[in-house]
Amino acid sequence: FSYYGMKTVLSLFFIREMGFDETDATAAVSLFMVACYITPIFGAWLSDAHIGRYSTILLLSIVHLVGNAMMAGCATIDALSGPAGVATALGLVALGTGGIKPCVSAFGGDQVPSIDLRWGLHICQLAFRI
After folding, report:
1. pLDDT for 4-47, tens place per residue?
2. Above 90 in pLDDT, residue 104?
């Protein structure tokens, strides 16, 4: 959920802390969003062709965590607060998001036993109600 929370305030961060004008801030946020929605292709490839779903979730969750920690550092530590630090942090968050998105849906599907179809139907109805 950090993607959605970060995306909400990222434009304000670029304007107030980085000194971007509104147009540049919107472009930077849009670029971050594109990166977050294109990197699942890499995550799916990595998971399916190389290291598996669970290892991909673990590895890229750590990358995601490091990106979030670095982004917090960009707001508080002067050495990280430049454009290169922010771009690196957002790149790590996008990469981590891309590794998690394609794998978590399949991981959730694994939790539903395939023997009893009524149980699966109940879980689907519950999920849609939430």
Report:
1. 788 888 899 889 888 899 999 999 999 999 998 999 898 888 88
2. no
Please report the DSSP string for 71-98 in residue order.
HHHHHH-GGG-SHHHHHHHHHHHHHHHH
CB-side neighbour CA atoms (13 Å) of 16: 6
Per-residue confidence (pLDDT) for residue 22, from 0 to 100: 92
Torsion sign across C-alpha atoms 21, 27, 30, 34: negative
**Closest alpha carbon to 3 in 33, 27, 28, 30:** 33
Ramachandran region of residue 77, left (φ > 0), alpha (ψ -120 to 50) or beta? Answer: beta
